[in-house]
Specification:
Elements (H helix, E strand, L loop, with lengths): L22 H13 L4 E7 L5 E7 L5 E6 L2 H10 L3 E4 L4 H6 L6 H6 L14 H4 L10
Parallel strand pairs: 1-4
Antiparallel strand pairs: 1-2, 2-3
């Protein structure tokens, strides 16, 4: 046995698997960045089993866009592959202040609730209004 330190050639080589991103997704993000003057910020947000949401904020107009990918590695690969796209650490005050949602964006995000005139009774009524509380609960 020798006490000589191991050289780099003796160390096991660890290779990271190549992440592939769908070409249509890259084309969509590149198109968004181009429409926003060539630069945008991306906030990478894990959303559970669905994957990672890449929320895009255009630098010139503050327009929002988003795409969902399988994992953080794929999201980072999108950021690395698109010129002019920069990953933001988080939603900070400066980034939020640049956002300018398009007309109708809130209604689109609200989905079926946007056009409703009547809403179902809240399921937490007993907690919010003690008058509805079950007398047996004390």
């Amino acid at each position: 046995m020798t006490d000589a330190p191991a050289t780099d050639s003796e160390a096991p080589q660890q290779t990271t698997p190549k992440v592939t991103v769908p070409k249509n997704l890259l084309a969509a993000v590149r198109g968004f960045v181009a429409r926003e003057g060539g630069s945008a910020k991306a906030v990478l947000q894990p959303i559970g089993a669905a994957g990672v949401r890449i929320t895009l904020v255009g630098e010139s107009g503050g327009i929002l866009g988003d795409r969902v990918v399988d994992d953080v590695a794929a999201a980072q690969a999108v950021v690395d592959a698109v010129d002019g796209l920069e990953a933001a650490e988080e939603w900070d005050r400066e980034l939020i202040s640049t956002v300018t949602p398009q007309k109708g964006h809130y209604a689109k995000m609200a989905g079926w609730v946007a056009g409703q005139k009547r809403f179902p009774k809240a399921r937490n009524t007993a907690i919010v209004n003690p008058r509805y509380r079950d007398p047996g609960l004390g």
